[in-house]
């Protein structure tokens, strides 16, 4: 095939240890031999200054130029790859592992495949180089080639569509990153830690945003992937399987259980056939077949164990290394994806969406997540509303957390803002809310805004303002580890339940997060939120995670939305019960995360009870004598039943997979 105007190639190779320097030289020679004048090789060193200094002499002037640079993102393969993506402007990014040597013809294969304008990603072939061995070890099940980052039986044929490429040998058109963002940091290999899935998550995220995405396999793009002696041991296989299970759990938390479709097919197809083959061979006297059969079953069991333990909440973690968008936004503000989740039943839905289209920040996208797509109600309500920034995405799994997580996955900006279908955003809302993240080197990963009543025409609306109103006041506030001062805001209040109740930080109808933080923490908990048995608390849970992880949280009172409160006593009573269950369930989720957390919550229960029951507490002092006692009873009943509802929801989700 004659490529008249070849695409430019940016080859990204990430490395972290001097032990691979010999193989890296072979890789660099193989790559440079086929680079053209417009191509470049980017070697990214993952937080190893000594190695970076050693490799800095490898740079050469174009053509075939080599750039050696340090990882400017979070440690790990995902962050290093993101550094490589940002280092150049080439149309196609080719990723090779630092222990994989491409075979001759790789560049021609990539150029020819990407000369087809509809090609988005390409997965190459990965052959195992068993170092000092000439053949695969007899005990190694061939269906586990993925354990050593190589091909395995059952992969699609050349030219076929695939879900995702193998990261050791893949090519991605730059527009993929422009449209859905970089590799998600927090997943993927870090040093010798045998985890992965970052390329899988990117491919699934892109396919979700662009259903017409074309991701294909091309076996002409082929590498020999070194399998060192340390990985030629049964212990490595089972350990790698365990960590792969944990990685898949994190992938499910980001993408949903549909992310495991290829894995289920592999188990039902190639793996089962391999068991049958080796069982027959073992019966015929081949002892190595028995070893393969046993290791194959052990590997699956370890992957399953890793998958189950991967849903255990984990605290801590470093601040995400994320930079705001720099193009097309006024005043250096990051672009924002606004997520509004709905069942299509709110009488205020169209007004809410129209208010978003009227924002004075032009560089936004509006994602309406339809949480009941079968009814068609959302599309009927929004029919005739045309705005190129508006997209309707569907999430058939009921629940506000599921819907919000779907919006996060579909979002293209690095800041994701949330509001509800019964809230009307002021025209300046998006601009002010995203402005809370500036400067980009700040530690703030969450910004909340002020929520005022859209109307107080009925007694129930006034009662809500007195008993549970969203308004946090007119003073800018910030919460940081310790009590670091902020020139533009007061230190946020830290009451006796700080930060576990988390009600002082804001509310879910007016909040924004760095998308990377939401992804690396697994998104909103599906066991919490409207539509789940617990009815709420997913926003409080996320606020608490921000603070406990050591990040900053800012309250911007000039980022205003107006909320339509429930107009009737019956509706308000149901809402107050849900607020009680949600708050209690959120605290229960934290309490069950560790023995230390459980102890912290138990010690604060007397204070919590006093705040809830005392008529002079901050919570109750604004209620006038006419405030219905039925509302208090409903909310307190919610506090009593919330922990039980959470445990039931967590048990149910653990049984079906994907609970958090």
Automatic annotation (TrEMBL):
Keyword Glycosyltransferase recorded: yes
Pfam families (alphabetical): Glycos_transf_2
Keywords: Glycosyltransferase, Transferase
Protein name, UniProt field: Glycosyl transferase family 2
Metabolic or biological pathway, per its Swiss-Prot or TrEMBL entry: Cell wall biogenesis; cell wall polysaccharide biosynthesis
Gene3D superfamilies: Spore Coat Polysaccharide Biosynthesis Protein SpsA, Chain A
Superkingdom, taxonomy of origin: Bacteria
Alphabetized InterPro entries for the sequence: Glyco_trans_2-like (IPR001173), Nucleotide-diphossugar_trans (IPR029044)
Organism encoding this protein: Micromonospora yangpuensis
Molecular-function GO term, any one: glycosyltransferase activity
Family listed: Belongs to the glycosyltransferase 2 family.
Membrane recorded as keyword: no
Record domain Glycosyltransferase 2-like: where: 11-180, 337-462
